[in-house]
Amino acid sequence: MSTVNKVLMAPDGPEFSQLVQGYWRLGSWDMDAQARLTFLKQHIEMGISTVDHAAIYDAGHCETLFGEALKLDPSIREQIEIVSKFGINGIATSATEKRVSHYDSSKAGILASTENSLRRLGVEQLDALLVHRPDFLMDADQVAEAFNELKQSGKVKHFGVSNFTTSQFDLLQSRLDAPLITNQVEFNPINFDVVADGTLDQLQQHRVRPMAWSCLAGGAIFSAQTEQVKRLRATLSELGEELGADSIDQVIYAWILKHPSNPVALLGTGNIKRVKDAAAALTLKMNAEQWYRVWVASKGVNVP
Amino acid sequence: MSTVNKVLMAPDGPEFSQLVQGYWRLGSWDMDAQARLTFLKQHIEMGISTVDHAAIYDAGHCETLFGEALKLDPSIREQIEIVSKFGINGIATSATEKRVSHYDSSKAGILASTENSLRRLGVEQLDALLVHRPDFLMDADQVAEAFNELKQSGKVKHFGVSNFTTSQFDLLQSRLDAPLITNQVEFNPINFDVVADGTLDQLQQHRVRPMAWSCLAGGAIFSAQTEQVKRLRATLSELGEELGADSIDQVIYAWILKHPSNPVALLGTGNIKRVKDAAAALTLKMNAEQWYRVWVASKGVNVP
Amino acid sequence: MSTVNKVLMAPDGPEFSQLVQGYWRLGSWDMDAQARLTFLKQHIEMGISTVDHAAIYDAGHCETLFGEALKLDPSIREQIEIVSKFGINGIATSATEKRVSHYDSSKAGILASTENSLRRLGVEQLDALLVHRPDFLMDADQVAEAFNELKQSGKVKHFGVSNFTTSQFDLLQSRLDAPLITNQVEFNPINFDVVADGTLDQLQQHRVRPMAWSCLAGGAIFSAQTEQVKRLRATLSELGEELGADSIDQVIYAWILKHPSNPVALLGTGNIKRVKDAAAALTLKMNAEQWYRVWVASKGVNVP
């Protein structure tokens, strides 16, 4: 069985597994606490030791469900790295509700969200806390104050961001002592804007690894009927044969992991078979021509 | 009555009042010199001590009209901070005129424009001189030479820019000893591109305050009949009630001033009642959810 | 006759002639080796001592043809600066070919491409080697390793890039000891995006000169029938009269060379008469208003 390696996320940063198990859909996996624990142990055994959460996933319920599983075997905590995120204040929409979902990166908001995540997960410390979405009202000094307090109290070891532009990243980094350890970004064959818009250039420059989310485009790769996705499916299948891959998923993970910013990839499935498939992708050797074939299939034009 | 505070514009920069009286429409206010002086004294009394001019406003006539008022009571000069701008060479269009309006940031052009502004205003020194528009022909070394000369001769205390992109700002800053003290940018509920495109991130990073121009979108907020502006009017009215504001103007100023780059806002009205209304906006407390409600009304979609 | 001057390309960089003879169309000039040598001597005599090549031009054949001419008079080598480029792996398309053209900036790829260019040109050293196109798979460390090796072996003196965005430039520069000596970019009256998108701001900031390619938009300036190009032709002709230029070409070169990033301009013609015309453009004095008239003709709107 393939073993997923651990990689350094940033200078002085933590080590994460090159594939990270995302738990945003945990609420829909229909697993009892024991089944959740089993799933967790299975992916740890493969070397997938890093897990990704956020306060907003099912309004905190995903963290609660995960915490219940952890409680069944507290020795697991030491074997994993837990990432969570803060900052989206969801507000249920209704015909009469005038208020809107928004972001909150106030110091008080960050501290409260983190306390809630720790409580729900039933742990004392997060390995990393990420800003979930760029908040146009982000006061970088306030965020830095909150991060310092969480670091000093031992509640969070490392800090990062998600979906940040380069200028947002520079701004926040300018107020922090330690390097941000990641920018978690959308990266899949349908949308890989971050490859060309400077986001991944910035990370490569600072030797900070991105975490790639929505690697399979939320499933659109398999089902969408646009010309773009049809071209992509044909090319990915063809590459699957050339590379001896078992599935299109594997080709996609290999494609993402080949990027020189050295991403780690988030998995969203609760199906252990598909997790194993993904892990096997790490052994595939894709060359540059094959990588660009996906680029061409996605864009519908040749490279300039 | 509310008193408008003074705020530091940048490290080692000047202090400006948090609301700045803009004089670009002075020519249309139909005031004699005494009325202009009265208006000026009234806003100084509120704490609005900073005034904004530019060489191009009515081809210099606005500066001349302001200078006439100042001459009636020269003691006023010490109570105010005067900002002016250079760099747009307007050319009247006509059927036979082939020449076009253009920018001039040559050293000779900067020195000449500044002399003319000083002469028209009847003062010895500007508190700040801004580049009015980015000039694609800007030779940053020449601009720096002009700035140094104006600084040494005591004709200008501080320097800034207007409508600059982040790369233009970086370029000019790289040639200067002192920090640029502002980037004056368009910022209103219809157009707030600077919030997301990096412009305000850069300023926040360097602790330089933007000056927000066109806060009321040239009046379009009150009159335009687009779907966007209709949504905005409804949301701003609703917020006005929640916040206990007297007018939509106040809600808009509160919305702009809430941004963490700490803008100062330009007023364009010659109606002292509306100036007072704006000053009262400084006491309004808008929360993040309310700020994003304007974002949502403007964009027509929820935040991601 | 006008003499083209040499200019410093970057701090510690090489000196290139302000006009550079491009050889990408050499294969279509229908010259025997002696005619090629004559052409080369003629432009050297004018002061155009820098020549521009790339591994991809006619799949290497342009370098071979140039090398044949050099071999007829090896003393020429010391009188010129040779630029070449690497990184595009062209793949002939056919009905059955599934592979696509792509980029290669692997260390092995860079070393092999450079060896091939040296062999075809019949020289021991390139004055400058450029990355031809940004490779989304560029591992900046590998590129730096290759550059160091080529520098130490004496095979290449200086390094630069072409068509790079600002973040790609920053990334690669961050791994190199010496400054990149240029970014070769498209710059003509139809497409001058680099003037506003930060590319030339970055170069001016670092005092690195761009090399302008496609100055005449591949001839589209003379032949295209779009409204934009019709406006441009009318304005360029009018400016030609005002400036006493012999041709529209000259006006365009003067327009490009006026940019404060101090570009050097690439010529693509094999017609020595047109090369002479271009050299004469260096004596034209275009003012800012005239420069912006081309801007306005291209954009179809006045400056803001």
Write the layout of secondary structure elements.
The structure is a homotrimer of 304-residue chains.
Chain A: E1 6-8, E2 15-17, E3 19-22, H1 33-45, E4 50-52, H2 61-72, E5 81-86, E6 88-89, E7 102-103, H3 107-121, E8 126-131, H4 140-152, E9 156-162, H5 166-174, E10 183-186, H6 193-196, H7 199-206, E11 211-213, H8 220-223, H9 227-243, H10 248-257, E12 264-267, H11 272-280, H12 288-299
Parallel strand pairs in A: 3-4, 3-12, 4-5, 5-8, 8-9, 9-10, 10-11, 11-12
Antiparallel strand pairs in A: 1-2, 6-7
Descriptive notes:
Three copies of one chain form a homotrimer. The first copy, chain A, is α/β, with parallel strands linked by helices and 304 residues long. Chain A has a single domain, classed as TIM Barrel (Alpha-Beta Barrel), CATH 3.20.20. Chain A has twelve helices and twelve strands. Chain A has helices at 33-45, 61-72, 107-121, 140-152, 166-174, 193-196, 199-206, 220-223, 227-243, 248-257, 272-280, 288-299; strands at 6-8, 15-17, 19-22, 50-52, 81-86, 88-89, 102-103, 126-131, 156-162, 183-186, 211-213, 264-267. In chain A, the strands form three sheets. Chain A has an eight-stranded parallel barrel with strand order 3-4-5-8-9-10-11-12, surrounded by four helices. In chain A, strand 3 (19-22), helix 1 (33-45) and strand 4 form a beta-alpha-beta unit. In chain A, helix 2 (61-72) packs across helix 3. The radius of gyration of chain A is 19 Å and the shape is globular. Chain A starts with 5 loop residues before the first strand and ends in a 5-residue tail after the last helix. The model of chain A has no long low-confidence stretch (mean pLDDT 96). The interface between B and C is medium-sized, with 26 and 22 residues. Chains A, B, C: It comes from Psychromonas ingrahamii (strain DSM 17664 / CCUG 51855 / 37). Chains A, B, C: One of its GO terms (molecular function) is oxidoreductase activity. Chains A, B, C: Residues 19-293 form the NADP-dependent oxidoreductase domain. Chains A, B, C: Pfam families: Aldo_ket_red (PF00248). Chains A, B, C: This is Aldo/keto reductase.
